[in-house]
Amino acid sequence: DSLGAGGSLELLVDKAVDYIHEGKSLSEIESALTEDSKKDKLLFSLEKFDSLIKAGRVSKFIAMVAKMMRIRPLGFADNGSIGIKEKLHTLDGVLKRMVFHISTFLKTTKEKVCIISHTANEEAANKLKEKLLSLHLFKKVIVRKNLGLVSYYGSDKALLVSY
Asked: Which helix (H) or strand (E) holds 128?
């Protein structure tokens, strides 16, 4: 269990491959991946909440208020639970605050990979990638489309950042 969505699982698979090449046993890999899943971070921003309401993750009232106030939350995942870091109004605000939270949370990211996944929001995903790379925050930043359940829960304009 990656305890996340979007690129979280891909980051763990890449680590598993590294551990296999290092010659670790299956139990060592399992233990290491369990610890890694607790360390990996996920930030996200959604424009719509419909599928999260249906899944019982957000109340109808909160979603209605957020929509009326044109709030675009900057959320995070923590051990399988989701929460809200900030309530913003613009996509540019979300991107700036994502960069801020990533840069203040991680002491060093030069050897880390970041995966930005999006649902019908490639332009914003690429803007975020440019900002992260211009600040030399990651060894590599990958942009991917959300597919399957992640695209369903994220709806249009979703951005997920796994690192």
From this structure: helix 122-134
CA–CA separation, 69 and 142 (whole Å): 32
- Tens-digit pLDDT profile for residues 25-40: 999 999 999 999 888 8
- The gap between the terminal CA atoms of the chain, to the nearest Å, is 16
pTM value is 0.84
Confidence class for position 50, pLDDT limits 50, 70, 90 = confident
> Mind giving me the DSSP string for 19-35?
HHHTT--HHHHHHHHHH
In angstroms, the Cα distances linking 81 to 66, 74, 107, 111, 138 are: 20, 14, 24, 27, 25
Asked whether 118 and 146 are in contact (CB, 8 A), the reply is yes
Sheet with 158-162, strands from edge to edge, namely 81-88, 72-78, 42-45, 158-162, 113-119, 140-145
